[in-house]
């Protein structure tokens, strides 16, 4: 490797300058970490304690975004210059090019990791207030230095202007900040892990769309507006729900909601009301777009006092329904009834009789009975029953397929979905009789 061009290189001075830049970059990285950890309230406490330089620190924390941008910009410049200078010093040694590259890479990486990334962040994370007080002079100088190049940054922004921040971007940015705050609180062991997870769930609710938590239309249990109140009561009892959407011509034509308590009150008050059509007892339904944010819907439910809404897709069709409980589950986790049990493995009741979970594979069910069952339309037992009856299965729903009798068991969970199915050979049922 030719080194004639580097013969007059002041190696000692460049080495000292490079190490100095690395050191200052490490201090600035400590300031960045302290800015992330130090709240405005804590900075105000420093002022109340009459700590020297506390008012300057409070001003820097108040204008956190500008301070952080200035410190980060100068730090990156110093890191770049330090790396270049140290690489030039190594190149002046006259070694082969690959050895120069290897030594420069290793030495720069070691200095960056040890004196810029690791040690400053560890110290600053432990004492953010003390770090900001000790380095408030350097921080102020860095902000002023960066402001000298503000006109140049303005020219760049004019050449390529940034578009206005969208609501989604603002929500993601805020949620990221809040999640980081929750993680910091958790690291300080001020909250239990489950409490920290709940805080994160609350923050993430502002990023969650209704379509992500709703019950899909294919799983909705509805009733026609022409059905009688007595049939509605039977459907309420079988499904376990207290509210049902009322349909008109098809599933996209939701006319309203019918409540169990309204039907029971009318029928018990006057038995002749049992044949009254459901349309006479239904209430107004609330419709929301399926791309609405979950936290906005929760506030709307609280303001307008309703617990169920129909989600509408971009084409105007019904995409599904969402309840207040769906939104609460996003925060606290799944809500189970005291009688609910987790899904288990298939249980053999007799030689030709099994109880299987709703999500049990159709192929696996066929293997239990040495049969080849149709799996083109559904991959699970629950899906197979739903495709055969062309509606959501309810307890007692019965189908026959390939010599097997499949009977829906009881519903579980807040959404009242069938959890298990009884499957037996039809000839076994005949012999039992």
Automatic annotation (TrEMBL):
Regions that span the bilayer: 12-31, 74-92, 98-119
GO MF term list: flavin adenine dinucleotide binding
GO cellular component, one term: plasma membrane
Highest taxon of the lineage: Bacteria
SMART domains: CBS, CorC_HlyC
Membrane topology: Multi-pass membrane protein
Domain CBS: 214-274, 281-338
UniProt key word Membrane: yes
Pfam families: CBS, CNNM, CorC_HlyC
Keywords of this entry: CBS domain, Cell membrane, Membrane, Repeat, Transmembrane, Transmembrane helix
Compartmental location: Cell membrane
Family per similarity comment: Belongs to the UPF0053 family.
Name of this protein: CBS domain-containing protein
Biological source species: Boudabousia tangfeifanii
